[in-house]
Amino acid sequence: MLGKTYLTKQASLLLEFARTTSDSDLSAKLISKAADLKSQADPLPDKDQGPKAPDVAPDARPDQQTGR
User: Fold this and answer.
1) Rounded to an integer, what distance in angstroms lies between the CA atom of residue 38 and that of residue 6?
2) CB of 46 closer than 8 Å to CB of 3
């Protein structure tokens, strides 16, 4: 499943493209697609909950991970 951050970024890019085009039909389609992505992102939690790599210690400083 795609995360809220990704969907929001994609919607933002579509809106940016819609503002720069002179083709009103294309602009309308881009805005519509951005609205679809926004509606998909809204019910998702604010922070993406993707899996973490097994070798990442969330609270350790870099020098603690290598033992230096």
Assistant:
1) 10
2) no
Closest CA to 7 of 47, 29, 31, 34: 34
pLDDT digits (tens, 9 = 90+) for 27-65: 999 999 999 999 888 777 666 556 666 676 666 565 655
CA pair distance 54, 35, nearest whole angstrom: 36
CA 44: distance to chain centroid?
11
Q: Where are the alpha helices (DSSP H) in the chain?
A: 4-20, 24-41, 62-66
pTM over 0.70: no
Integer Cα distance of 43 and 37 in angstroms? 11
CA 10, CA 13: separation in Å to the nearest integer?
A: 5
